[in-house]
Design a protein that fits this description.
Helix content is 39%, strand content 24%. By secondary structure, the chain is an alpha+beta fold. The protein has a three-stranded antiparallel β-sheet with strand order 1-15-14, with helices on both faces. Strand 2 and strand 3 form a beta hairpin. Helix 2 runs antiparallel to helix 3, helix 2 runs parallel beside helix 4 and helix 3 packs antiparallel against helix 4. The longest helix is centred in the first third of the chain and has 20 residues.
Length: 336
């Protein structure tokens, strides 16, 4: 089928036929990962609808988002007879490249890995014991820890290297997705864990895969994808408040602590980079991190503030900040 025929099917609501065709058509190109993601996302949405875990409104919002994403992929198909590949709009650094195979991945790692730090440093208070042991193990073996995600149930995921991970008490669907993406050679950039086993994986430049995240959040992420924006962080709180950062200082939020939201707005208005945002606890403790400064809630631990400010003074990259239950906190930064 050509692009016009695919669009006609899409207009008739034949999303599955379109998605299946695109999976085959995009095989071996840089769009293959996107086609697989959309096909899997459609299957998961239909399954959730059949199981009754989505309301009619949630189902329709998700289906509309998938349809729009399929249309964008169709519009980027090369013309018949063209040798060109489908390529994402890209202003991406090396880390955002979709590695098509193990040989390419190995070559790129050989090229870029020497410039990366040999180890990560971990600071924190009241870190769950098993997570603490795992972070120390990775630190002692010289791994670069990329991200730590944890929810109030002490489920956690630690990402390190390009697409390696370790976890505790996460849903089987997340385990399967992490394994599948790691095997595909995609960069697993971040994992966000919701309060009741919801989850989202950030992939490469602006791809994602999720289960039961708020529809308003996934709509914003779809918009980022459509407009070629890099998604740099996604977070969701215990009350389903959420935040997404994109490009240098773009943001979308819902129901964040008021003072934290105001700090984000101020960074954006002053054209300052927003690198990380973290919040949690009751009353809320929060941190908004830029490239040269950080803003904290009044109740933020002095030790947390000292750790972050020391990293900024030493020009160390902070990879992850988490606010933990019972006034705990966690900071992962590159070694000196």
């Amino acid at each position: 089928m050509n692009a016009d025929e695919l669009k006609a099917l899409l207009a008739q609501g034949e999303l599955k036929r379109v998605a299946d065709d695109l999976v085959v058509r995009c095989r071996g190109t840089s769009a293959e990962q996107n086609a697989l993601l959309l096909s899997g996302r459609l299957a998961k949405t239909e399954q959730d609808w059949q199981l009754g875990t989505l309301s009619r409104e949630q189902y329709q919002v998700e289906i509309n988002g998938i349809g729009q994403a399929l249309l964008r992929l169709i519009e980027r198909l090369p013309a018949p007879g063209s040798a060109s590949e489908i390529r994402k709009k890209s202003r991406m650094p090396w880390r955002a490249i979709l590695f098509a195979g193990a040989a390419v991945a190995a070559l790129l790692l050989w090229r870029f890995w020497p410039s990366l730090p040999a180890a990560s440093l971990v600071d924190g208070e009241k870190i769950p014991e098993r997570l603490h042991r795992e972070l120390l193990r990775l630190q002692q073996t010289g791994e670069r820890i990329k991200d730590v995600s944890i929810n109030a149930n002490d489920s956690w995921v630690v990402l390190y290297g390009l697409s390696r991970y370790t976890w505790q008490d996460v849903p089987p669907g997340l385990q399967f997705a992490l394994d599948s993406f790691a095997r595909s050679g995609a960069e697993i950039k971040q994992v966000a864990l919701g309060p009741h086993n919801e989850w989202l994986i950030l992939l490469n430049y602006n791809g994602y895969w999720q289960d039961r995240m708020p529809p308003a959040l996934t709509q914003r992420l779809d918009t980022c994808y459509a407009r070629g924006r890099e998604i740099t962080q996604v977070a969701i709180g215990s009350g389903y408040e959420w935040m997404a950062l994109h490009d240098r200082n773009g943001y979308d939020t819902e129901r964040l602590p008021t003072a934290a939201f105001e700090a984000i707005v101020n960074f954006n208005r002053q054209n300052k980079e927003i690198r990380r945002v973290a919040w949690g606890g009751e009353p809320a403790t929060w941190v908004v991190l830029g490239d040269r400064e950080a803003v904290f809630s009044d109740n933020a631990s002095p030790q947390l503030q000292a750790s972050v400010r020391d990293a900024l003074a030493q020009k160390q990259t902070i990879r992850s900040i988490r606010i933990l239950p019972d006034s705990g906190w966690l900071v992962v930064k590159d070694g000196k």
